[in-house]
Amino acid sequence: MSDDKPGSDTRLVEAGRRREWTGSETLGGGVVNVPVWRASTILFDSVAAMRAAHPHGKPEQLFYGRHGTPTQWALADALTEMEPGAEGTALYPSGVAAIAGALLALLSPGDELLMVDSVYGPTRTLCDGLLKRMGISTRYYDPAIGAGIADLIGEATRAVFCESPGSLTFEVQDVPAIAAAAKAAGALTIIDNTWATPLLFPALAHGCDVAILACTKYVVGHSDVMLGSVSAHGDAWRRLSRHARETGQHVGPDDAYLALRGMRTLGVRLRQHEANAIEVATWLDARDEVGTLLHPAFASCPGHELWARDFTGASGLFAFTMRGASAAQRDGFVDALTRFGLGYSWGGFESLALPVDPVRTARRADFDGPLVRLHIGLENPADLIADLARAFESLRVA
Ligand SMILES: *Cc1c(COP(=O)(O)O)cnc(C)c1O
């Protein structure tokens, strides 16, 4: 990285907008955004030109639609630019497809994967289903393990998978210590970095080899596109990019365009999500109905001190327990919210609430009540707080 590397907001504005993708010399200018190139067939001027265009080793050259057009290349280029240390980025049609792509590219039958116990549910389903059937075994570890991961790494361990903070329960992991222990033992460190994005936690710079994003969430940012990405370097990047090509991974140009458009405002959106979420979480923290606030920026969240050490900010997703409430009361609380939407996913401009029941197998999950997960959007926090207050009030009346 050179000393004059521009700041992350500048890079978000400039990334992927290569002159050869935004205009042409014959047209005399260029547009601001790389256009949507829709293509399956690419036409060549001669057989010789067609042969010369073969994509192996020259990925950013028109050859056949499956290998992408400037629209997809610009998004991949921008994601690589935003992840310091990355050599390249592969795109996938969803976050889960990106996770599956990374694991299948890097693991083989007989290998063992160490998986954080607080991982996103569908990742667990993939490990316990397809990977198991392929002869790849998964051992779940406590998210608080830190450097202690070294004791679990055996002969067959090929990779350690982190997700920090964890899904639903938000434990922050000591990723640098885990990555250092994995590296010393010859294993790769893979991280699902969807919550933080490289803006709040540059994962490769913290020692990870492979960084996965469900771009569906903050990169797209508008709840209207499914997309995933994997950024990596070194041998892991070569294996990943080959696997993505071999398995025909492709994302539609309209989706790639929308994701790239979303990226331009990722910095300002994340700062506002953070500020709004902290305002709402601070209010919740003072409520009698709230047991434990599971927000990495608050001391009550396991691993808070690691968040303070390693992250440059928080995003807008967190959870809290409803002290002493029954699951039915918790569900009633969520139903009583009118401004928060009820639905899966997160990372869009709108607020969402979800009743969640985490599954843990490495360590018992003990909470002082049922959990509610909130995604805090870009509304005025006072309106969201009023909605939450009303829903708590309806509980008391009921
Ligand atoms: C949503 C999510 C995914 C999956 O992304 P999809 O695009 O919905 O497939 C992966 N990891 C985390 C942490 C997520 O929240």
TrEMBL record:
InterPro entries: Cys/Met-Metab_PyrdxlP-dep_enz, Cys_b_lyase_bac, Cys_met_metab_PP, PyrdxlP-dep_Trfase, PyrdxlP-dep_Trfase_major, PyrdxlP-dep_Trfase_small. Gene3D superfamilies: Aspartate Aminotransferase, domain 1, Type I PLP-dependent aspartate aminotransferase-like (Major domain). The keyword rRNA-binding does not apply. It comes from the Bacteria. Its EC number is 4.4.1.8. The modification N6-(pyridoxal phosphate)lysine is found at K217. PANTHER family: CYSTATHIONINE BETA-LYASE-RELATED (PTHR43500:SF1). Belongs to the trans-sulfuration enzymes family. This is Cystathionine beta-lyase.
